[in-house]
Design brief:
This is Carboxylesterase type B domain-containing protein. By secondary structure, this protein is α/β, with parallel strands linked by helices. It has 16 helices and 14 strands. The radius of gyration is 22 Å and the shape is globular.
Length: about 500
């Protein structure tokens, strides 16, 4: 059994300065640690700057504010909320969980939260790193970074874009420089993220400034099918944002308080929404200097070529955003075929609809649409990445999470985000989440134990074959082995074969 740190062990000396943490469940926990200068005032919409440190002993027992974001009292019907106050632009902080601030050089897990590029927080209870630190003898770091208009708004060549990525680079460099003092190994860092955080993880891994800093990545449900804008398209969206914010130029925009920026961002949701597409008013910008290519492509060469990769998706990703929407539930066959035509062309759309309908007996038009969106945005591009890396002799570990939730009469299936409490194996921290209602504890807990141990094994060694899982081989061109996580777990050959073959014929 782990012993709680003594009072004198709660104060740690880092290159950045001295911190006083807290003892929690046998771990030393540090919260609200600044890794970059506050991006406020003249530093709003500027690249992150390394924090200059502090004098004396800084208290690190309370989480820092979350990045400004939309907030709905009472949460949402799926997650129950994905970001809670307080919010503040001074948000560039991180939390650390470590078994001890000693010289043990434990593997490090750096977690990047998702949230559609507009919401979330690294200090959410569900992202508590205690289970990983305790069960895997790891040092876990979870970060906050700029979101929505403050992180993703493109202001042109002079100011650049992708300030969120400069935040994450600063956090990675902070970890590299300070983690040894917290019992971690700076030469064994795994970066993991889910959804938008998985896009961030890939972008970070492929960034030239990160070369040699990351050993492994875990990509959970990366929406690599997103069509990321270049500077011209991004600036068109910025012009719409300025109009919604009621200002004429950047100088006026800089005078607005952050709540006004978040309000204008809500307007951009409505203005950019398209039927049958996941709403994404703010996106990473392929601008050249900060993000030279799509993050999925970044994992095929350069800084990320030798990195160990795990990638996966849930079977019904799109149900998260669409299954509980009455309008989408009433979709007609004709509407869905029109949507399919935007991807496959009008001539092939009826045949593609029929192929999706055959794969799910009794499928309604709504079900076909859900599978189409899941494939376009998540499954098909993840498989393409696995195929490309395997062809280069750099295979990945691929998985699909299949366990459906009984919540909402089963309409959510194995929805986006559902694997998160299984990976962290901390259901007590997700009691607020409606989408977990009704899961059988024996099935739930057994699968969580297996997934959690597999993630620990991958972080520690690059091999997830730990903790009693059936054999999980790398994805290669011969077998296309993919682990299927369900009430009965096992690896299957070419699990996503139907989607893979169908999406080879896309015309856009």
């Amino acid at each position: 059994m782990a012993h709680s740190p003594s009072d004198d062990q709660l104060v740690v000396d880092l290159p950045a300065g001295r911190l006083r943490g807290a003892a929690e469940g046998g771990l030393l926990v540090l919260r609200g640690v600044p890794y970059a200068e506050p991006p406020v005032g003249d530093l709003r919409w500027r690249p992150a700057r390394p924090h200059t440190g502090w004098s004396g002993i800084r208290d690190a027992t309370a989480d820092g504010p979350s990045a400004p974001q939309p907030y709905q009292e009472g949460g949402d019907p799926v997650l129950g909320g994905h970001g809670a106050p307080p919010f503040d632009e001074d948000c560039l902080t991180l939390d650390v969980w470590t078994p001890a601030a000693d010289g043990a050089r434990r593997p490090v897990l750096l977690w990047i939260h998702g949230g559609g590029f507009v919401s979330g927080s690294g200090s959410l209870p569900g992202y508590c790193g205690a289970t990983f630190a305790r069960d895997g003898d790891l040092v876990v770091v979870s970060i906050n970074y700029r979101l929505g208009p403050l992180g993703y708004l493109c202001l042109g060549p002079g100011e650049g874009s992708n300030h969120w990525l400069t935040d994450q680079l600063a956090a990675l460099c902070w970890v590299r420089e300070n983690i040894a003092s917290l019992g971690g190994d700076p030469d064994c860092i795994t970066v993991a993220g889910q959804s938008g955080g998985a896009v961030s993880t890939a972008a970070l891994a492929g960034h030239p400034q990160a070369q040699g800093l990351i050993k492994r990545v875990i990509l959970q449900s990366p929406p690599f099918g997103l069509d990321l804008p270049g500077p011209d398209a991004a600036l068109e969206r910025t012009a719409a944002f300025l109009e919604l914010a009621g200002v004429e130029n950047e100088a006026e925009l800089r005078t607005l308080p952050w709540p006004a920026l978040i309000g204008a961002g809500l307007g951009l949701f409505a203005r950019t929404a398209r039927w049958g597409y996941w709403p994404t008013p703010f996106l990473p910008v392929i601008d050249g200097p900060t993000l030279p290519r799509h993050p999925a492509e970044a994992l095929l060469s350069g800084a990320a070529a030798g990195i160990d990769v795990m990638i996966g998706w849930t079977r019904e990703e799109a149900a998260f955003g669409f299954a509980l929407d009455a309008g989408y539930a009433a979709a007609t066959r004709e509407q869905v075929i029109e949507r399919i035509a935007e991807t496959f062309g009008g001539a092939r759309a009826p045949a593609v609809y029929a192929a999706y309908a055959r794969s799910r007996p009794g499928a309604r038009p709504h079900d076909v649409l859900m599978d189409l969106i899941t494939d376009e945005l998540f499954r098909a591009p993840a498989v393409r990445l696995a195929e490309a890396r395997a062809a280069l002799g750099r295979p990945v570990r691929a998985y699909q999470f299949d366990l459906p939730t009984p919540a909402y009469e089963g309409r959510l299936g194995a929805a986006h985000c559902l694997e998160l409490p299984f990976v962290f194996d901390n259901f007590d921290q997700w009691s607020h989440a409606p989408f977990l209602a009704g899961l059988a504890p024996a099935v739930r807990d057994g699968l969580a134990h297996a997934m959690h141990r597999a993630w620990i094994g991958f972080v520690r060694t690059g091999d997830p074959n730990h903790g009693g899982l059936p054999r999980w081989d790398p994805y290669d061109p011969g077998t296309r082995a993919t682990m299927r996580f369900d009430s009965v777990t096992g690896a299957l050959d070419d699990l996503a074969g139907d989607s893979r073959l169908l999406h080879l014929t896309r015309v856009t």
